[in-house]
Amino acid sequence: MRTANIVQLGMKELWGLFRNPMMLMLIVYAFTVSIYTASKAQPETLNRAALAIVDEDKSPVATRIITAFNPPYFAIPRLISQTEIEGRMDAGLDTFALNIPPNFQRDMLAQRTPTIQLNVDATRMSQAFTGAGYIQSIVTDEVSEFLARYRSTAPLPIDLALRARFNPELNKGWFGAINNVISSVTMLSIILTGAALIREREHGTIEHLLVMPVTPFEIMASKIWSMGLVVLLAASVSLVFIVQGLLSVPIGGSVPLFLFGTALYLFAMTSMGIFLATVGGSMPQFGLLLMLVLMPLQMLSGATTPRESMPQIIQDIMLAAPNTHFVILAQAVLFRGAGLTVVWPQFVALLVIGAILFSFSLRRFRAFLR
User: Is the N-terminal amide bond of 168 cis, ω within 30° of 0?
Assistant: First the structure.
């Protein structure tokens, strides 16, 4: 092995990447626009939901109900007629349509238990379930306060002192930004190395490398360090300028410690990208393999849902995946401010898994070249 060969071959990979505008656009998008939208888009949170109200009672209690719906959870309610409900919901203009029937206040004061109809567009699943509960709670509170003639809060038997650590505002955008940085590192580390190998095979330049005095180890190592360096730099810039700067997400721990763990993680995932590229003979086949591998890794690694909520056998199996340890490391360092004394098991696991994947991929790569 000659270090100069690895360096020169890696520089060749970098020049090839810089001449590929689509790959450059993918890198820029994944670490800028994708992270920003993941932080701002919160589908599980009710935000300015479209609400229309049919007021057939025109009573004080109906006015209280109408004025109780305000941003940011609901948009200002639109008053419509009974005949407009179906057409507006068919057109997707309203997610909720609340119908206050005639003589609602009179029947309520007479204790006849009147009914308010709520129509929900259930195709908007993210808002339908949460919004229906919010509307029921708001209407119930307003009616109860109207009947009681005053606004009161029932005393609780205990007082719960809530202290939210690491995310005092309970801001879901903080989690979305960090989680998408992790996902972008995982995706691009596989795509860039795999695409670099397949591109050489499709262009016929892999045969040029075979007649040169270089070894398969040098070819593979050059692709790993060059593509890993690109992803590492992009992640660093994104973490500083997009996450901390544009989105104002506080980083609780050491950024250099996180980047060091990212480098170990890239060593493992770029090796996996080489392996998938040797299995897939073309770019479409590589894309299909990528979906089959990437989606289970992302969903079961703990980045989307906590690992503790998964079956024990899934937790044990996913310990063999590098991104499981990287998610634990990233969340511990960036959210909770953990130091090396806390996350050193994840560093060791990434190093061991990366070495295993590299040796396995190198054997497969040699067979691929033969």
Answer: no
Assess whether 331 and 192 both reside in one domain: yes
Q: What is the mean pLDDT of residues 168-175?
A: 78
> Considering the domain boundaries, does residue 238 fall inside one?
yes
Length of the chain: 370
What is the model's pTM? 0.77
pLDDT tens by residue, 179-189: 889 999 999 99
**Domains in the chain: how many in total?**
2
54 in Cβ contact with 41 (< 8 Å): no
**Could you write out the DSSP letters of every residue in 78-133?**
EE--GGGHHHHHHTT--SEEEEE-TTHHHHHHTT-----EEEE-TTSHHHHHHHHH
| Domain annotation covers residue 177 | yes
The span from the CA of 370 to the CA of 356, in Å, is: 22
On the 0-12 / 13-18 / 19+ scale of CB atoms within 10 A, 351 is middle
Tokens 């340890």 locate to 325
**Taking a C-beta distance cutoff of 8 angstroms, is the pair 322, 354 a contact?**
yes
